[in-house]
Amino acid sequence: MLNLAVLVSGGGTNLQAIMDAIDSGEITNANIKVVISNNEGAYALERARQYGTEALLLSPKSFPSRDVFNESLLLALKEREIDLVVLAGYLVVVPPCVIREYENRIINIHPSLIPSFCGKGCYGLHVHEKALAKGVKVSGATVHFVDEGTDTGPIIMQKPVMVEQTDTPETLQKRIMEQAEWIILPKTIDLIANGKVHVNDRVVTIDE
Predict the structure, then answer these.
(1) Helix H segments across the chain?
(2) Which of 23, 37, 69, 120 could make a disulfide contact with 60, Cβ separation 3.0–4.6 Å?
């Protein structure tokens, strides 16, 4: 059984998609051990409590230095014997000590087709604003492993979503969540939990 830590800064819609997929059997061989947020007001923490999962507030602002926060985050994961860290709208830079400890065991969901509209400053609605400003006809979502860069880790799964002429950043965000993010993030977790995802020289292969 794969122990998951889901790290979230906001409402936790992707967290809810994971919970629903576990309950429905879409995700097998995995359970959410802890939900961690840097934001005291994050509704994701309430989702965790309602689900019966530990809700842990860890904010960099509550520690005397960033190094102390980094070590505390790593310790929290290790104490709970976490196997896979899932970033589901987490707006804190994951520290190198965590990335090294959990190499190819941290995944992130990004609301575009990487390498488009990713990197520094590309998060939340900013991603969709940039996509619409560029006039793209197709966007989507990407699940990737996390390395020490920003959205630069090996790509695991992507799903395209058509852009409509009447789209606003908000409508495009909603459709990408519904048609891509909430599908490929649970699917990726299930594949990893069942040993079907492999990384070789930054290229990901998936067993059929």
Answers:
(1) 13-24, 43-51, 66-79, 96-101, 125-134, 169-176, 182-193
(2) 69
